[in-house]
Amino acid sequence: MPCYFALFDLQQSFWLDLEQLATRYRELALEVHPDLFVGASEYKQRLVLERSASLNEAYQTLKSPTKRARYLLAMNGDKLPIEVTVHDPDFLMQQMQWHEELEDLQSETNLAGLAVFKHTLKVAQNELNKSFAACWDNAAQRQHAECLMRRMQFLDKLTHEVHQLEEHLDDELDAAIHTRPT
């Protein structure tokens, strides 16, 4: 498996210049665009398709802080199952509080509160990114990096739930507006 960082001519680091990553991705994607290989053999078309899929996977991995963290840990030789119970009592309590708050926001149909909640999650994600980077840069703290990556995964899932709730509440609001007598 090729190194994703080398593929994009980037240093192996948690912090990346996402503009540089996107620019390099577009350059490489043009090289394997299917339209360039319409007249090529089936074998060549399949190779190009595989290279394009690998390029997309590499890009998706590196542009996401959580996926990038997981990838760095895997490159370091850490065996990381996708789902693992987090043995972190403080964070488990925080998870429960966030879930309760999200449930309250849903039952109250509180879009303004949801915006505040989203901001809280964004701040927490940024702090986790900084903490992971610090652990990653300090070899003596690398074991703690896995714990932080697990927290990052949880926040990604919770953020996804928030986006789904936001869409649901927007749909409900639209339906209420459209069914209101004029």
List the helices and strands and how they pair.
Layout lengths: L3 H4 L10 H14 L10 H22 L1 H11 L13 H20 L2 H27 L4 H38 L3
Helix pairs in contact: 2-3, 3-4, 4-7, 5-6, 5-7, 6-7
Question: What does this molecule look like?
Answer:
- With 182 residues, this protein is mostly helical.
- It has two domains: 60 residues, DnaJ domain (Helix Hairpins); 91 residues, HscB, C-terminal domain (Monooxygenase).
- Helix content is 75%, strand content 0%.
- The chain has seven helices and no strands.
- The chain is flat.
The CATH topology of the largest domain is what?
A: Monooxygenase
**Largest sheet properties:** none
Going by CATH, the homologous superfamily of the largest domain would be HscB, C-terminal domain
- What is the count of distinct domains? 2
End-to-end Cα distance: 62 Å
Number of DSSP E strands? 0
Listing every helix as H and every strand as E from the N terminus to the C terminus, the arrangement reads HHHHHHH
> What is the CA-based Rg, rounded?
21 Å
By CATH reckoning, the class of the largest domain would read Mainly Alpha
> What fraction strand?
under 5%
Q: From the 3D coordinates, which CATH architecture of the largest domain would you assign? A: Up-down Bundle
Low-confidence segments, ≥5 residues, pLDDT <50?
A: none
Task: List key phrases describing it.
182 residues, mainly alpha, Helix Hairpins, flat
Short characterization:
With 182 residues, the protein is mainly α. Helix content is 75%, strand content 0%. The protein has two domains: 4-63, DnaJ domain (Helix Hairpins), CATH 1.10.287; 89-179, Monooxygenase (Up-down Bundle).
